[in-house]
Design goal:
mainly alpha; Tetracycline Repressor, domain 2; elongated
């Protein structure tokens, strides 16, 4: 009979996600993962497969983490404008770990051009974000909250591009004031 797991899978997956966010895929060795996750190498293989499979699982985990965090923020919004502002504020203010960056952006820039599975996961995450923004924009246009008469999908692509740029800039020494100015400039399109 096999031994039972001596760790909570979601907890160690979270630890792997943090390490991949901090160091990237290429710079993270199996030894780094084993040490940071606090599990044995055999347990890593038995539970998650190889390093690449673990990385893909951390991308999924990150997606759920961000979705949960954003959902709790957006549920408090009473209008489409407030909901979109929450998304931008969350991107800029984050959860105190902005220097780790966004795992989707990190994975896309490091691996998507040469790893089909990573490209598919990041592309899907980006498309979902654009669709969500487009829904909010359409809602704001229908209620008259947004004066912009451009196609919601086109505006969503532009706003999402700004969000991606903000995620990258947030990892630098750029001030939050600068990031908010960039966000405000981009959001002004909703009322033109």
């Amino acid at each position: 009979m096999g031994r039972s797991k001596e760790f909570e899978e979601s907890v160690v997956l979270q630890k792997a996600m943090e390490l991949f966010r901090k160091q990237g895929y290429e710079k993270t060795s199996l030894s780094d993962l084993v040490e940071h996750m606090g599990i044995h190498r055999r347990s890593l293989y038995d539970t998650f497969g190889d390093k690449h499979t673990l990385f893909l699982k951390t991308i999924d985990c990150y997606g759920e983490f961000i979705k949960a965090r954003l959902t709790s923020e957006i549920l408090r919004a009473e209008t489409a404008k407030q909901a979109i502002q929450c998304i931008f504020d969350f991107t800029i203010e984050g959860s105190g770990d902005r220097l780790l960056g966004c795992l989707f952006v990190n994975a896309a820039t490091e691996l998507a051009s040469r790893d089909k599975e990573v490209e598919e996961k990041t592309k899907e995450a980006f498309m979902q974000a654009e669709h969500f923004l487009a829904e909010l924009i359409r809602k704001g246009q229908q209620t008259g909250e947004f004066l912009c008469d451009l196609e919601a999908e086109v505006v969503a692509e532009s706003l999402h591009n700004t969000l991606l740029g903000l995620r990258v800039l947030a990892r630098t020494s750029a001030s939050k004031e600068k990031l908010h100015r960039i966000a405000d400039f981009s959001l002004a399109i909703l009322n033109k």
